[in-house]
């Protein structure tokens, strides 16, 4: 491994942390309906837990309602039960073979809880990024110990890794600010 490899690996891992945060923030409910809200609901499909989008077609009926159209009619009751039992606080209703999932407007108290959740997700992402920085710095120290690079190269590389860390932490803060604004907007 070289100094460049260590920096490249650190950057790739930090980028993955950002992607993970994006998907985690997409799960956080705002006042509007969006199909991504149900992406992580698991349904028993022939004895196997399966993600809802794999067993049903998700559409937006209107601004506050998600339509769930199962691919198999016999799955309607199972899907409705899975949505009701998920931790999203949604109450689906069935109309024929279409399940309508209204998203109730968020109360002020619930919005504040959502903001806390968003900040918690952000802190987890920042911790992951800092851990990646630590691992990169350790691998740089190992390179010096193995005499694969000089101490000056190591210091420069550590500075670069720190700049990368700062850049990704700022990106996390921006994403959180946007999501917070979105959640608090009535």
UniProtKB/TrEMBL annotation:
GO terms for molecular function: ribosomal large subunit binding. One of its GO terms (biological process) is cytoplasmic translational termination. InterPro entries: Ribosome_recyc_fac, Ribosome_recyc_fac_dom, RRF_sf. GO terms for cellular component: cytosol. Keywords: Cytoplasm, Protein biosynthesis. It comes from the Bacteria. Pfam families: RRF (PF01765). It is found in: Cytoplasm. Residues 21-184 form the Ribosome recycling factor domain. PANTHER family: MITOCHONDRIAL RIBOSOME RECYCLING FACTOR PSEUDO 1 (PTHR20982:SF3), RIBOSOME RECYCLING FACTOR (PTHR20982). Responsible for the release of ribosomes from messenger RNA at the termination of protein biosynthesis. May increase the efficiency of translation by recycling ribosomes from one round of translation to another. Belongs to the RRF family. HAMAP family: RRF. This is Ribosome-recycling factor. It comes from Oxalicibacterium solurbis. The gene is frr.
């Amino acid at each position: 491994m070289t100094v460049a490899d260590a920096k490249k690996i650190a950057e790739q891992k930090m980028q993955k942390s950002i992607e993970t945060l994006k998907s985690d923030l997409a799960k956080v409910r705002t006042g509007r309906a969006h199909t991504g809200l149900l992406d992580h609901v698991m349904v028993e499909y022939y004895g196997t837990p399966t993600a809802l989008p794999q067993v049903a077609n998700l559409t937006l009926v209107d601004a506050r309602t998600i339509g769930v159209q199962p691919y198999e009619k016999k799955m309607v009751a199972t899907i409705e039960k899975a949505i009701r039992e998920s931790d999203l606080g949604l109450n689906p209703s069935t109309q024929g073979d279409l399940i309508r999932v209204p998203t109730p407007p968020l109360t002020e108290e619930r919005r504040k809880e959502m903001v806390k959740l968003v900040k918690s997700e952000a802190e987890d992402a920042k911790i992951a990024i800092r851990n990646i920085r630590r691992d990169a710095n350790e691998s740089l120290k190992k390179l010096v110990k193995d005499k694969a690079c000089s101490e000056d190269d190591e210091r420069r590389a550590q500075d670069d890794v720190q700049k990368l860390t700062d850049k990704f932490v700022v990106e996390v803060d921006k994403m959180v600010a946007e999501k917070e604004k979105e959640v608090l907007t009535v």
